[in-house]
Amino acid sequence: MNLAAYAIMTILSLLLLERSPPGPDDVAPDTGVVPDAPPPIDYLIIAPEAFRDELEPLLTFHRGLGRTPSVLTLDAITAMSPAATGSPASAGVTSDQIRNAVEAVARDNPLRFLLLVGDPAPRRDGAPALPAGVGRKVPYPGIVDDDTFPTDWTYSVESRAGRVAVGRFPVSTEAEVTAMVDKTLRYAQDAGGPWQRRLALFGGPANFNPFVDALIESETTRLLDEAIPYEFDVDFVFAKPSSAYAWRPDDLGGKIGRELSEGALFAAYFGHGMPTALDLVEFRDRYYSIGDAEQLANISIPNGKPIFFALACHTGAFDQKGGALSLAEGLFLNPNGPIAVVASSRTSHPYGNAVLGRAMVAELLIGRPATVGEAVLAVKRAMGRHRMFVGEVLVPGDVRTLFEEHAALYNLLGDPGLPIRYPGGLRVETEGPTRVGLPIRIRVEHAGKTTITLETRRKEIRGALEPVPATGAVEDAFAAMARNHDVAIDKVVHRVDADLRSGEVVSMPPAPGAGSYVVKVFAHGPHSAAGSVLVEVGP
Fold first, then answer.
1. Beta strand 492-500 with 448-456: parallel, antiparallel or unpaired?
2. Is CATH 2.60.40.1930 what the domain over 424-537 is classified as, yes or no?
3. CA dihedral sign, ordered 155, 161, 162, 166
4. What is the pLDDT, as a whole number, of residue 141?
5. Torsions phi, psi for 469 (to 5 deg)
């Protein structure tokens, strides 16, 4: 047997047995009956031996979902490394060794999920590192950046079940493992509620050039009004003082924290970013932070911890020297923070980020993958289907190379096998004519307590906006921005709470005028659900 074959057999034996070899008293007598083969592995955890006990509740959770989870320790991988590669065990496990181990499991198992439990740059002296792989950076014109970047995409191999979804707990201590496992289980057990239909979106000013800025803002408007299904509620903060959706610059970090604390199914930031902060916004020759790691690491989300996407540069740099936390790590390691964070480990491209945003809407809100890892995998794989050809004038070289880079740049911090808590679906239909002055009659296939709203389209602003003073006391300008934001974000024309019988026809008050509206229905209770129907009100 050659050394490579021996190494693979060693990994598989350690993985499948997960215990010491049997002693003489443990060996059953030979009855001539061939024992059953071990069940196929579909969920794999790679972690230091020291974290095994803390991970047991997570393994139990996945078994309860009908999966066959298993743990492979770094010690087990390192133990077979000298024979397999000739490298000294004292050097620690390498990304090549980890990938080889994952490939060995995936070769003979329907492996779907891989969770890496450990930090690429541990914050505790003596803690074992669980290294990321290495990706090659695409050079962007005028940008000085590293030639390589850290990525867990290296471990997303092909198995008998398809490509493996990878996530990571960037933890350095047993206490952090326990906290992240507990947060994961609490999300799965959350009673649900209005947060399941809520999206919390935050944008920073583009500040590239007029053409690019206009392209980004036009695409954002299109996504908000046309692409995002209307059964979802969208709360939006745009950190651009001239926007109706702007918030006062001196309280942007606080506003983001408060919006997240209300809970959401998904949250996202798009704009510029740094390893430990979001962008700065300028107003009257002074710069204000949109939010930094210190502010956002302390948020508290009692219910509805969202899956958070940061479509920005560097916010997911989880390999900082000295084990310093990136913004994404700080958000995720907060026991009361988002349930998962997806962020870029180095500079990302505005076009790549825009295409990712398109893919997110289509794959997450329409396709609805069942788990966090499958959702991230679906978004990455869908980039080629969501191209914006007018934006490709910005792309250096082959656009496919840029897409491949972005698939590797964006890493998932969180459990890839965690089911996403989508709301159930409701069938909503209109009954009879819809004209000015007539009640809007709808039929809902649901029995129970519901909230029904008649709303304007997202691109419409119902109330009157006030001018933001260009001079005078800055507090007056900030207060005007806050009032304008509250006006712009409020789309509800009428609201009705009702206890319905299935198929009952409900009359909503008339619309205030002719035009396009949407009726949204949310069903309360342990199995919350949402539905919507667009309504054209004639004169």
1. antiparallel
2. yes
3. negative
4. 83
5. -60, 135
Helix H or strand E encompassing 50: none
Give 538's DSSP letter.
B
CATH fold group of domain 3-16+38-168: Rossmann fold (3.40.50)
Contact between 343 and 356 (Cβ < 8 Å): no
Helix, strand, or coil here: 53?
Answer: helix
Nearest by Cα to 197 from 424, 454, 373, 491: 424
Contact 289, 253 (CB under 8 A): yes
Q: Are 375 and 360 in contact (CB under 8 A)?
A: no
Report d(CA 22, CA 15) in Å as an integer: 15
Which residues of the chain, if any, have pLDDT below 50?
Answer: 1-34, 83-90
Residue tagged 């290495």 (tokens): 134
Do residues 144 and 137 make contact, with C-beta atoms less than 8 angstroms apart?
no
DSSP string of 313-358? SSTT-TT-GGGPPPHHHHHHHSTTS-SEEEEESS---HHHHHHHHH
Residue 440's Cα: distance from chain center in Å? 37
Cα 128 from Cα 436, distance rounded (Å): 68
CA distances from 195 to 140, 184, 336, 352, 528 (A): 39, 17, 15, 29, 10
Domain with CATH 3.40.50.10390 in the chain: 3-16+38-168
Contacts with 304 (C-beta within 8 Å, 6 or more apart), sequence order:
190, 193, 195, 196, 198, 262, 263, 264, 265, 421
Gap between the Cα atoms of 374 and 106, Å rounded: 16
pLDDT at 525: 83
Q: Please give the span between the terminal C-alpha atoms of the chain, in angstroms, as a whole number.
A: 83
* Of 195, 217, 199, residue with least CA distance to 208: 217
Say if strands 133-136 and 148-151 run parallel, antiparallel, or are unpaired.
antiparallel
pLDDT at position 14 is 37
- The confidence score (pLDDT) of residue 502 equals 86
Give the fold, CATH level 3, of 192-413: Rossmann fold (3.40.50)
Which pLDDT score is estimated for 4?
Answer: 39
Q: List CB contacts of 298: < 8 A, sequence separation 6 or more.
A: 257, 334
Specify the amino acid at residue 108.
Answer: D
pTM of this structure: 0.90
Q: Tell me how far apart the alpha carbons of residues 154 and 135 are, in angstroms, rounded to a whole number.
A: 8
Q: Coil, helix or strand for 44?
A: strand
Would the CA dihedral through 145, 156, 323, 80 be positive or negative?
negative
